[in-house]
DNA sequence: GAATGGCGTTCGACAATATCGAACAAAATG
DNA sequence: CATTTTGTTCGATATTGTCGAACGCCATTC
């Protein structure tokens, strides 16, 4: 991909990306500071985005927020996501039998994107949101993908990823991570043992497409103390079986 | 809103809008024909959108489809939509008692956008999709909104809407529609009697915000013959009550 | 296996157009 | 009522987006 990118388009995307679950409304000034452009430049871009429904202005405080057109397009993407439709019933089933929160993520470059879930019972729920992104090297879902990627791709991703320690248990040394991934590959499933949040454990298994490439993974996440119970021994096998079933329906053959 | 819009940004949005539920993959050629621009211009825009994850290229056939970044932003919009969170449980409840498909739409200009639903039981389901848009003047949900809008706004919308007859029962004469809306206002709920699809009937009620402005509506849609049963007499009242409850939780006071 | 056609992609030159600062308007603040 | 802050408009400028032409790749055809 060459580098002759359209400046104003890239800038308009920068503007959209200023918004998030926590930053839902922004003023022109805040946006212009965020993207480091003059107010007038930003204003022109914002005006274009608003007129087309990609941004909306709150008439009470003049601030802007993301518009409904994005909701619309986002749902087109969701609707076209074959794997999501295929996986949904299997994930629901798995969540039911395990009585835990189950996630489906797909790989996008060196990140994992959450595309489907099934919340577990009880008041303690994991924070998770459709479309959320997470690093590959320190999450169960991510490791399940990394471990089965071609070695060169895996190494490239580890080089590109910035290693941030979320908890004392997060692995940040690429060599240690590679060891862990090797174990994961042999075992057939990945374990996240409080690497992203203390008290949180998860088991994840890879999903393959018809070309036998890892493209996604599912995980079963829960509080650590529950995983120590003997009745949970079969859990990894159940996650693996569910992942295999999704792979199969995607055209994968053993 | 003045008209000094940024051409290249508007064009990039034109490109995104070429895609839909039915048109999920497009080639550069198809896009350039769709937006009536040279291949090279389109290519530059596409390249920018792809590099940022708003489009993705299928490596097998070179075609492009909408990217995950839109899924992400679309979910931010969904997450920020207060009314959606508030209405969801009420809609689920209503669907349960009525045993029919229930929809929540919000007004966006002169269109209705479907933002939440609860599918009815049975194999016969209405085609409906999150983010889908529909005209206001010939749908139950739309008429429930139009009828309670300030007269001038309503008239403006009728002027701007192109009147397409979806079925022989669709009203296309603005005067007839105004009469119908007047009846709707007095009755407190709207009826769509096969105006958008033959065999399909629906009952819809308006939702108001804290400023007593109509901003949305809910509907209960089902096959016509079922609505003739006597047991269904209470249905309109139940839809109205649910809509009122949503309005109340949005800060509306009678 | 050379020739053809179709399509995605790159390149260079030109002029259209996006950009910025400054000025204006309109609220919010004291 | 003065002052500050912030959204919006305008005009001059050169940056940057645009197009046509050409390239290269793949598949199909003869």
Describe the protein in words:
The structure is a homodimer of 254-residue chains. Chain A has 254 residues and is of the alpha+beta class. Chain A folds into two domains: 7-73, Winged helix-like DNA-binding domain superfamily/Winged helix DNA-binding domain (Arc Repressor Mutant, subunit A); 81-249, 2-Layer Sandwich (Beta-Lactamase). Chain A has ten helices and eight strands. In chain A, the strands form two sheets. A six-stranded antiparallel beta sheet of chain A has the order 5-4-3-8-7-6. In chain A, β6 and β7 (200-208) form a beta hairpin. In chain A, α5 (82-98) packs antiparallel against α10. The relative contact order of chain A is 0.11. The model of chain A has no long low-confidence stretch (mean pLDDT 90). The interface between A and B is large, with 53 and 53 residues. The structure holds a DNA duplex (30 and 30 nucleotides).
């Amino acid at each position: 991909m060459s580098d002759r990118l359209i400046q104003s388009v890239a800038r308009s995307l920068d503007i959209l990306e200023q918004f998030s679950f926590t930053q839902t409304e922004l003023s022109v000034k805040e946006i212009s500071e965020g993207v480091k452009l003059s107010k007038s430049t930003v204003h022109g871009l914002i005006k274009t985005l608003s007129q087309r429904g990609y941004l909306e202005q709150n008439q009470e405080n003049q601030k802007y927020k993301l518009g409904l057109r994005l909701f619309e397009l986002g749902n087109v993407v969701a609707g076209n996501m074959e794997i999501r439709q295929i996986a949904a019933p299997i994930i629901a089933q798995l969540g039911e039998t395990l009585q835990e929160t189950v996630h489906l993520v797909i790989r996008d470059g060196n990140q994992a994107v959450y595309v489907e879930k099934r919340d577990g019972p009880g008041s303690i729920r994991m924070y998770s949101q459709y479309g959320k992104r997470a690093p590959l090297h320190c999450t169960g879902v991510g490791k399940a993908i990394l471990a089965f990627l071609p070695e060169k791709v895996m190494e490239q991703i580890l080089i590109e990823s910035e290693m941030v320690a979320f908890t004392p248990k997060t692995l940040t040394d690429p060599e240690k991570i590679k060891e862990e991934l090797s174990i994961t590959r042999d075992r057939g499933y990945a374990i996240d043992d409080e690497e992203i949040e203390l008290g949180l454990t998860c088991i994840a298994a890879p999903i393959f497409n018809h070309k036998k490439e890892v493209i996604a993974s599912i995980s079963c996440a829960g509080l650590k103390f529950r995983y120590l119970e003997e009745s949970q021994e079969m859990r990894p096998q159940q996650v693996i079986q569910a992942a295999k079933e999704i792979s199969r329906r995607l055209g994968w053959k053993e």
